[in-house]
Request: fold
Amino acid sequence: MNVSEYYPAAGRVILHVDMNAFYCSVHEAEEPALYRGKATAVAGSSELRKGVIVTCSYTARSRGISTGMVVQQAMKKCPDLIVIRPDFHLYRQYSRAFMQIAYSYTPLLEATSIDECYLDITGSKQFGTPIEIAEQIQQRIMEELGLPCSIGIAPNKLLAKMASDLKKPNGISILRMRDVPRILWHRPCNEMFGIGKKTAEKLKKLGIDTIGQLAKSDEKMLIDLFGVNGTWLKNSANGIHHSPVVAEREANKSIGHTTTLPADVSEMGDIHRVFLNISDQVARRLRKHEMLSQGIQITIRTPDMKTITRSRMMDIPTEDAAVIYREACKLFAKHWGNGKPVRMLGITLQTLIPREESAVQMDLFEYEQKPKKESLIRIMDQLRDKFGENAVVTAGMLGDDPSVLLRNHKVRGTSLQKDNLQSFD
Reply:
């Protein structure tokens, strides 16, 4: 498939990443034994049963629970509802983590709340087609953080936001300009993002019940009634939206990746192969950003879901997977040791600096060998860009049974059909 076919010659490609039942999903990821698959809700005064539900799990929603419902009322509807006090420090940690994953695909990220953001991926062709990028982001957020998200793909922010609402939870949807009449016009006006209850009521009094009727309304009449918002209303109903993604984040402060293993692993040889694979992935992303790292952190999660992190500063900034691998193994040996089982391993590269600003000291041997090594790495990166991540792997990554340790690195397919998706306009 030609990547350029998915990117319009002009215009933008925007993703909207929307975390599903975010607060409840965070608690489920932290304590799956307590909350996975259960009817849960996050509310303030859970003990007094006077609090208002901030969000609830999809299991709870299927039992008639909804946001804004008083806890006491919700408990009558669903007696086994588990009400959780909010932990905003924990939510901010997970928010930073999922946005860091999204940020690794484009610096054009606009966070609109703790649980959603827009990404402009027009310049991110090196990572694949828009649907492939969305699949990668969705899969990594699930595998690394245990959180579901829905992603909308569109030529502007408005349609990307509308698209992310089409399939929940954990869906990916494309909404192009030519799809607007078929997908949106039959819907009531209050389902258009940006149209509140009062505006929808005013439109209804005018006989404008659906988005399609709004799209065909007289613009002058709308301006007379709503002022400058009249033009916005008509444009939005037609899928027209010109607001750019406003990047407000600083440059990358870290690049990381974690792998949840299919079974508990305790043999050092297996652990080394996992670290070798992760080192290769984070080093490759580091090179794509043209950065070097001077700090490294490893993450270990035990079978009982306790998470441990250990870090150190390296003497010389690096982009070399071999160096990252060696340092990760040293940290693991020092702070964890052989024989203890682990369920998840991760590496995060910290203290990042632009490659061109780094004055790296090399001994004579490195000075002679480094150009050859860099040339080989560039060739390997080019092969992966063209043929996929598994086009080149080192023997050490495979071990005796490569399917076991590389299983989690395969990109999952989705039910979304890829035919008839040649453009977004």
Summary: The chain is about 40% helix and 20% strand. The CA atoms of residues 6 and 422 lie 5 Å apart. The longest strand covers residues 342-354.
